[in-house]
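User: Show me a protein chain along with its predicted structure.
Assistant: Here is one chain, sequence first, then structure tokens.
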Amino acid sequence: MKMYLISDNVDTYTGMRLAGVDGVVVHEHDELYTALQNVLQDKTVGIVLLTEKLEREFPDIIDEFRLERKMPLLVAIPDRHGTGRKKDFITSYITEAIGLKL
């Protein structure tokens, strides 16, 4: 299975291309929707990497994609601007998931 990147900036796209991950750069709502539909046509793609900025800007598309599909897996990654997550997001995620404070 392959990975595919949908990015909002050329720097992230270039870095992932150097690592062997194909992808596309999008900026608009319709471009993101079209890119996700194109990825669904390629059955060899198992993981779609998406920059956190796109996830924040277009939650309607992302939520629809995640709710309606099991594959490919959609993973939000930080880009050159850093992450939008708080510093202890992993600890709080575990606490919320299992109800145990670490």
